[in-house]
Amino acid sequence: MTSTTDNYVYQKLDVKLNKVIAFRPANLSADLDKIHKWMNQDYVITFWKLGFNKDKIQQYLQKALADKHQNLYIGFIDGVPMSYWESYWTIDDVISGYYSAENSDQGIHLLIGDRYFLGKGYALPLLRAMTFFQFQYSATQKIIAEPDIRNQKMIHVFEKCGFVFQREILLPDKNAALMFCERQHFMEKWK
């Protein structure tokens, strides 16, 4: 199913994929069904732990959309919605207790929700696009990731993108790999 939504906040042709990667703000009424489906995929439940019924997912999204320290996005490849993203200000997040957070630091959570898009080399271009999007805020010098330490595939993708493993941390909901992506390193890597 192709989206006709044209309110993308970021859109770019990935020349290696020859596909357009885009993001638009998540919308409760438009996205509840797809996010509910995605959160209940076996490969997503393992790490997100949000395999709930639709009412609980709706409550989760309502709270997340009202939370001023983060923005939710749907990711697209060639107009097809296929991923969910949470971009957040780390200073107002639990992660700020695990490193010296700056006011302009951003963090990132993501999932590829549609199984069709798994294993096809999309994770790195998508993550790179979101990282470029976050660095459009000129004050941001660092982007944080804290994937589940068991998710070695995603840790590898973060490293390929330019994130550097700092240390393992114990968060309230998981053992995580604290990773930093510094602006200068990222821009030099992907200029």
From TrEMBL:
Protein function: Acyltransferase required for the direct transfer of medium- to long-chain fatty acyl moieties from a carrier protein (MbtL) on to the epsilon-amino group of lysine residue in the mycobactin core.
GO molecular function, one term: N-acyltransferase activity
InterPro entries for this protein: Acyl_CoA_acyltransferase (IPR016181), Acyltransferase_MbtK/IucB-like (IPR019432), GNAT_dom (IPR000182)
Protein name from the UniProt record: Lysine N-acyltransferase MbtK
SMART domains from the UniProt entry: AlcB (SM01006)
Pathway field: Siderophore biosynthesis
Entry annotated with the keyword Transferase: yes
Highest rank taxon of the organism: Bacteria
UniProt domain N-acetyltransferase: residue ranges: 21-184
A Gene Ontology BP annotation from the UniProt entry: response to antibiotic
Keyword terms of this UniProt record: Acyltransferase, Antibiotic resistance, Transferase
UniProt keyword Kinase, yes or no: no
Source organism (scientific name): Halotia branconii CENA392
